[in-house]
Amino acid sequence: PPPPRLYPSLPLHPVSVPHPGMWARCCRRLLPAALPARLVPCRGRKCRTDPPARSKAERLRVPTPVDPAELLVVQARYRHYVAVVAALRGEFKEALLRRRYEEEVGSLAEERARTEAEEHRRLMEFNQRENKRLQGLRDERLRQEAEAEAQQKHQAAASREKKRAEFLSEKEREVLQLQEEVKSFITLENLEQRIEEALDNPQSYNFALDKEGRVAKQTVQQ
After folding, report:
1. For 78-101, how does the pLDDT look when each residue is reduced to its tens digit (9 = 90+)?
2. SS3 for 206?
């Protein structure tokens, strides 16, 4: 049911409802052009500069009747509302200023300064402990890195020494082999002797081999 009226004797006045076309025009202005306005199609509205319709050319708007008693009551209530709101705002503003003064100048400021100093001291102690802990970890890491680097250098030096020893032993073996081969070389001093040995022991290389590598046929040297 509708709520009870303040003055039941006053007549009810119809409430003016905006035309759907005005809502459509407002939505078209507020919504972006990329977003389609899902509104019910309706007829458009004329602009402010358009002349009035011929059917309403002689129409004169009658002011809405106002009840003097109701107007006095509404004005009195509005003044009371303004006074109450002003008093509340003043009370809240005074409380805010008082709290701000206490925080900046009063006992709360001293308590806050003491709390900040205590927190600063606690944070500095924590920072020093953390720095010592990190310094210990850093020193341990640097020591391990130095040991690993020294071990790596030692291994590299040992590997180079091993390769050098193998290279020298290989060259020494080649020199010894070359010295053994030099004994069988033909020189000017043993040239006649080697010629006589070759004539006394002739060798024939004119022979054939089978699939197993045995001498199959050899030509007799003349």
Report:
1. 999 999 999 999 999 999 988 888
2. coil
